[in-house]
Amino acid sequence: MPKYTQPRKTWQYSNEFKVKAVQLSLIEGIQVQDVANTLDIHPFMLSRWRKEYREGKIVADKRKKLTEATRKQEKEISKVKKLEAENKKLKQELDLPKKVATVSCGGTSARYRFIEKFGPKLGVKRTCEWLGVSRSGYYSWRDREPSERKRSDMELKILIRSISDENEGRYGSPRVWQALLKQGYQVSRKRVARLMQEMGLIARVTQVTYRAPGLRRFLASGENLRSDGAVPDKKNQVWVADVTYLKVKNQWHYLSVIMDLYSRRVVGWSLDSKRTTEVTRRTLTNAIRKRGATKGLMLHTDRGVEYRGSEYQRELRKLGIVHSLSRPGKCTDNAHMESFFHSMKAELIRNTTFDSAEDLKYALARYINNYYNRKRLHSGIGYCSPMEYERIAA
């Protein structure tokens, strides 16, 4: 026992003294006995202070001292957390029958797949009990070698991923399915859709909004010569055209496009920062240069000023092209162009930032000339690309 140089019957130590003593005893390499001897206190007393320090009864000035009220609050908080955990467990048990109902009539493998998916969250033991299967059977199924069907699915997933990446995520399950058929793989469309869903592959889509021009412009003279909506049986019989808005760094640019309705091939396009007859005339010139003007060719457009302008009308008459106009307020009369713009914005523009108009123009050239016309499968022409469809028809 240590000797006390100034023994006293009672001695009141301050909170700061106790904290300092505990902090000294917590320094690495220093023993409790040495600190007690230095401070002239009993080692047992210092050990009790260390215990009270850990429990929060002795605290430094900067820490909040635990009172009886705070201890009660902590107990209440702990009790609430425990009740919340029990409530979450009960909620999972209530939701479990709804999930189980989706596989209750399925086979054993379907139930095992359900356990594999929801077991980590709901608990394997509880889920097995709900589904009426044994845990040993589930673990045996999980650890066995994959079946021939599963190996086939894994190989298909590699092909599906390759097709999706090659088309930059633009293909949904119908086009991926058609691409697989073209490569010689016999597989059902629903199987492709299921595998794409498992892989989380979704085609790029977007919602296109339209700015409705004034009714007076719609009510201008002009006639819809395609009221029946018939599709031509040869190329260079009916062309459709339209203009859409694209933004680059808070500045609108206008894309003018002409499409051959027979093959859905884009035969001319032009990009400009101004929406005038100049951009549509340039598009028409490009299309004529590529395809050649033919007498009796019909060009169908909407009633925008860029098509109703006198200069543009003179150019059409000079080339012998008949001009057809959509009915006022009926954008569906030019549905093929609207569909093209919708696909282009979903597959190219959405989630893409262009630093300049030149970057946008380069991306459009790559998409329209190299991808859309040459490679992209089109549902309206038997899942062929426009150029392939024209070659087959020839």
UniProtKB/TrEMBL annotation:
Keywords: Coiled coil. Pfam families: HTH_21, HTH_Tnp_1, rve, rve_2. GO terms for biological process: DNA integration; DNA transposition. One of its GO terms (molecular function) is DNA binding. The keyword Coiled coil applies. Belongs to the transposase 8 family. This is IS3 family transposase. It comes from Bacterioplanes sanyensis.
